[in-house]
Specification:
It contains 20 helices and 18 strands. It folds into five domains: 1-67 and 181-242, P-loop containing nucleotide triphosphate hydrolases (Rossmann fold), CATH 3.40.50; 79-178, no CATH class; 248-297; 324-536, P-loop containing nucleotide triphosphate hydrolases (Rossmann fold), CATH 3.40.50.300; 556-630, Helix Hairpins (Orthogonal Bundle). A hairpin with a 2-residue loop joins strand 8 and strand 9. It starts with a strand and ends with a helix. By secondary structure, the protein is of the alpha/beta class. Helix 19 (548-591) runs antiparallel to helix 20 (600-630). The longest helix is centred in the C-terminal third of the chain and has 44 residues, at 548-591. The chain has helices at 42-49, 83-88, 92-110, 113-132, 138-148, 153-156, 165-179, 195-206, 219-225, 244-279, 285-297, 364-372, 406-414, 418-427, 444-457, 474-485, 498-504, 523-536, 548-591, 600-630; strands at 2-13, 16-27, 31-35, 57-61, 68-70, 183-187, 211-215, 228-233, 236-241, 324-335, 338-349, 353-357, 379-384, 390-393, 462-466, 490-494, 507-512, 515-520. The chain has a six-stranded mixed β-sheet with strand order 5-6-7-3-8-9, with helices on both faces. It has a six-stranded mixed β-sheet with strand order 14-15-16-12-17-18, sandwiched between helices.
Amino acid sequence: MIVLQAKDLTISFGGQKVFDEISLAINEKERIGLVGVNGSGKSTLLKCLTRELEPDKGDIYISSQTTYAYLEQLPDYDIEKTAWEVVMDSFEDLLAMRQTLRELESKMARADEQELDKIMAKYAEVTEAYELNNGYLCESMAQKILTGLGFSEEEYSRPIKTFSGGQKTRLNIARLLALEPDILYLDEPTNHLDMSSVEWLEEHLQNYKGTIIVVSHDRMFLDKTATRILELSNRKLYSYPGNYSNYLKQKALISAAWEKAYQKQQAYIKKTEAYIARYKAGIKSKQAQGRQKQLDRLERIENVAKDATIAPWEFKLQQDSGQDVLKAEDLAKSYNDELLFSKVNIHLRKGDKVAVVGPNGCGKTTLLKIILGQVLPDRGNVNIGSRIIMGYFSQEFENLNQERTVLDEIIYSFDITIEQARTLLGRMLFTGDDVLKTISSLSGGEKARIAILKLLLTGANFLILDDPTNHLDIESRLVVEDMLANYPGTILMVSHDRYFIDQIVNQLLVFEKKTIKHFLGNYSEYHHQKVMENLNQPKDVEKKKPSEQQLKRIEDKEKARIERRLKRDLSEVEDKIADLEQQIAIIETDLADPQYYADVEKVQELSQKLEALNNELDMLYEKWEELMSRV
């Protein structure tokens, strides 16, 4: 069933069309991954679909009964509220039902016999709705969501005014998941989540009962959650069934078919132009003119194939490093008397490509800064090998001059020609007038691309990268991936992008229990090993016994549930009895009419039916008596 439909949506900003007459239909329980390069209009489309933004043209159809929620819609929280209170507010209707039940229970205690029947009926009605919507599970659901998104129990009771921007975003995701709207719109939901929280969110969304529309640059997340990919490209919307990997395969097939059609058309054009050139002045000039008209009317196929003549990136390291690049022994670090890590030992060798992974706040960036000499450890030492030239990428882009243009930043930093600089910038997706923008006017993703390009051009043989993909769209990540995968030096990086890590690294340094474990392999291999270890762990068969009060509550609830079921069954039996008695009365009336006896077959048929109905009625009366004895 279609839950959302849009037709001929068009929107422009500053005279430039963001998308032009796009249409879509989204079905119940679909999980849509919305992709496209930065600036293609993904977030704008979400705002149109949630009616935050009015399109210049087009219509959006959504039932008034359909509920939806949008991640970017940060509510006006009461800053004194705790994280627990914010999430519990999502169960407002159920909590109101709970309060109604408590009030009805109080009224039962002092009601007379006549009032009691009405109160009991109302109580049964509210209880049924409460149970149907899992009202008893509100607290456990809130706990599950908050824990899954990386909140500790201590943080449950903290007022949200003490939270960072990233924590508030995570809290908003928790609030939306607790709401369980029919349509859930998510714009970059993994941005402030560590890997374990992303994996929990993936599993939660896979089991989500409603429809999901998500914008994300996290390719593994899209692989795990999406059932269809919608791509915004050149102001149009294209649909691909399946997850992100299937989308890539389909695009490759379409691109290959398009290239084949382009080459075929080019051959036809070349052959036709040769014919026209040869015969335009001769006896076949009319035929030549006719073919020229055909060419003029021909709808040209655009060449969408990438330039295959671009040579691989040639890395020019200033010098080869020694075999031992880094040795760190017994490192420990605390902040405000809280231990981040201890007993950390690292040995990197020439050519190693290593990712540091772990939960938010475990000390990943601190570890990098200790290795760089920017932060002192509380204990231990760091030894950098011989002939090592380090290059560092940070989130602050310290290596960029904000006042220069993109082109000047490369020219003056490396004393190269304009043509050389434009070629290098083109590799990092800067084309045309993009190179004339000042650094200060660039987006975070554009600054990141320039900073990475500068880092690679320094000739450093040991790169230390702190979350290099944080601001990058998928297209940019592919470019950086390709460069780093072919980089001949040593890499130590922090990243939350599992797909990116898989393409580049051959080792992991994993933060676990306040120290670091070394793993040979990429993230997918590590995750698979962890899954297998969990499967092979013996299950804890001892369950915590409930208290007598809990047992009493469970028993009372079960008794109430059974009583409601009995009353419902009794009502159904009584309805069936009334229906059968009516059918029997009609047949008996017909059999009493003398005119029926002229048709022997008809009388026989009615008699048999009457016998069957009486037998069924006897069985129903037996069931009715049994139910009456149990109510």
